[in-house]
Design goal:
It is a single chain. The protein is mainly β. It is built from two helices and eleven strands. Strands 2, 4, 5, 6, 9, 10 and 11 form a seven-stranded mixed β-sheet that branches. A four-stranded antiparallel β-sheet has the order 1-3-8-7, with no helix packed on it. It starts with a strand and ends with a strand.
């Protein structure tokens, strides 16, 4: 399984950005049972959960810091998961990682910064200008 993030860059505070995570290597039926999440790590900070998605039932979970501003979604046909980031703030600057796991532990993974998830991308960097 491979995860490749894209869409990072420099955005002004208050602006929007959409990150993409292309997933490959999953058998099409297996894809529907997995948990996919976005995580971020700023310099000097621990990795934290941003948003997680249960592929099987579509339920989504968000960190309190991004609720109402970020949206996680997926396109099954394209095997891609997105993170729409709106009204970004300077504190959103970080390297954003996509991760996947075959266990439905969505809230656990979100709260634990993705601890225990099997598959990770290399990340995409998001910078915010004030």
């Amino acid at each position: 399984v491979q995860l490749v993030e894209s869409g990072g860059g420099l955005v002004q505070a208050g602006g929007s950005l959409r990150l993409s995570c292309a997933v490959s290597g999953l058998i099409s039926d297996d894809w529907r049972e997995w948990t996919i999440g976005w995580f971020r790590q700023a310099a000097g900070n621990e990795r934290e959960g941003v948003a997680c998605l249960s592929i099987s039932d579509g339920s989504t979970y968000y960190a309190d810091s991004v609720k109402g501003r970020f949206t996680i979604s997926r396109d099954n046909a394209k095997n891609t998961v997105y993170l729409q980031m709106d009204n970004v703030k300077p504190e959103d600057a970080a390297r954003y990682f996509c991760a996947a796991d075959h266990e439905a532990r969505t809230t656990f993974y979100l709260q634990m910064g993705g601890y225990g998830m099997d598959y990770w991308g290399k990340g995409t960097l998001v910078n915010i200008s004030s």
